[in-house]
Amino acid sequence: MAVLSLLHPASMPLAAASGSFTFLYQVGYQAAGMMIVLGALGGLWLIVAALGRVLRLSQPDHPPVTRPLAASPSPAPAPVDSGLDPRLIAAISAAIHVTLKSRFQLVSIQPEQTHTPAWSQEGRREIYQSHRVR
Predict the structure, then answer these.
(1) Residue 1's pLDDT band (boundaries 50, 70, 90)?
(2) What distance in Å separates the CA atoms of residue 23 and residue 19, rounded to the nearest whole number?
(3) Rg from Cα positions in the chain
(4) What's phi and psi for 63, nearest 5 deg?
(5) Which of 75, 78, 96, 132 has the most neighbouring CB atoms within 10 Å?
(6) Alpha carbons 15 and 37: distance in angstroms, whole number
(7) Is-contact 25 6, C-beta < 8 A?
């Protein structure tokens, strides 16, 4: 009962706005709030864990169907002279490999035919919007 009196003294109404709270009262108030938040988070964790277990048990035990890889890789197409630097082609190929995490075949790389100043226009628009008009 002593802890309850520290958290909410009976002599003080709920809407009191006086600054005479003791340090121990403030610590108790903060501790109660933290316990409520941690309890709610713990409850959510238990709900999610239970839901995961229910969904795992409701799944059939069949392994996922995978397509077998070909015994021999298909022959690579003859390299086409695209006029691009071979290091650029290697960098693009590496980026695709890291992103897809699977086998792929790079068919063509076509540089942008027309220069569109969209990014520079957007930058100018942001700069102009950030200034006040006089």
Answers:
(1) very low
(2) 11
(3) 33
(4) -70, 155
(5) 96
(6) 23
(7) yes
Question: pLDDT per residue over 66-103, tens digit each?
Answer: 666 555 556 665 565 667 888 988 898 889 988 988 88
The amino acid present at 22, given as its one-letter code, is: T
**DSSP notation for 80-130:** P--SS-HHHHHHHHHHHHHHH-S----------SS---HHHHHHHHHHHHH
Q: Classify burial at 25, counting beta carbons within 10 Å of its beta carbon; exposed 0-12, middle 13-18, buried 19 or more.
A: middle
pLDDT of residue 122 exceeding 70: yes
Task: Count Cβ atoms within 10 A of the Cβ of residue 6 and give its class: 0-12 exposed, 13-18 middle, 19 or more buried.
Answer: middle
- For the record, the structure tokens of 24 come out as 């121990």
Label residue 2 exposed, middle or buried (CB < 10 Å: 0-12, 13-18, 19+).
exposed
Locus of tokens 């988070």? 41
Is-contact 28 3, C-beta < 8 A? Answer: yes
Return d(Cα 7, Cα 40) in angstroms, integer: 20
